[in-house]
Amino acid sequence: MEQASEGIDYFGRGSILTKVQERLSVTARREMFESWLSFAGKVDRATVLDVGSTPDRERLDSNCMLPWFHESGFRLSLYSPEDIDNLRDTFPFAEILPSAGFGKPIPSADRAFDWTTASAVLEHVGGVSQQVDFVKECARVANGLFLTTPNRWHWLEFHTKLPFVHWLPRDAHRAVLRRFGYGSWAEESHLRLLDARELGEVARAALGDSFRFEIRTVSALGMPSNLVLLAKRV
After folding, report:
1. Higher confidence at residue 1 or residue 60?
2. Taking a C-beta distance cutoff of 8 angstroms, is the pair 151, 217 a contact?
3. 3-state secondary structure the chain
């Protein structure tokens, strides 16, 4: 992942809509988790690496899937380019891998895990080539993938809380964000939303013939709000 600006607030702490968003997010993530379980099949103490675990412990939806993995019988490891040592007490059942820093490979051997998961990370790693590299790196260390990202064509953009303007061509959208004081979100290194077609293109470029994959959707507020990339090594 690319390094985020110190000034960007990924968690929307100043918005009056944040608490509502948190509840919607937890509901959507539970649905995504159940969808993945149906795809994954037999658990049998399978190993999962969560890539991009957040050190945040304030929001209701931060790392909300981690207890679900544990309760479902998976052996869980966490990795982030950020310092997440503060999560050791919160999730004592999880192994925490050492951070290699932003833009560095995951410190793990090839196919060390049964599954890699990353929740709402892909849209923050940079442009197309960085997104392909991120999916490729997640695939390198596992035999299956469970990656989620917001759907660009949902009417509400959940980071800025602005409706519809993200439907504009990307250059126009970024110009609007800068005009109204959302300059950090206008940077591609901080936010590049994907639709289902684009996610499929990223997956094909990253996975080649080594994985079979499918893309599912989860809905909120009347439209598909999230995309779920599910893949298994052939």
Report:
1. 60
2. yes
3. CCCCCCCCCCCCCCCCCHHHHHHHHHHHHHHHHHHHHHHHCCCCCCEEEEECCCCCCCCCCCCCHHHHHHHCCCEEEEECCCCCHHHCCCCCCCEECCCCCCCCCCCCCCCCECEEEEECCHHHCCCHHHHHHHHHHHHHCECEEEEEEEECCCCEECCCCEECHHHCCHHHHHHHHHHCCCHHHHCCCCCCCECHHHHHHHHHHHHCCCEEEEEEEEEECCEEEEEEEEEEEC
Q: Which domains does the chain have, with CATH numbers?
A: 18-161+193-233 (3.40.50.150)
Select the more confidently predicted residue: 13 or 110. 110
How far is residue 145's CA from residue 49's CA, in Å, rounded to a whole number? 10
Sign of the CA dihedral with 134 first, then 136, 142, and 143 last: positive
Per-residue confidence (pLDDT) for residue 4, from 0 to 100: 42
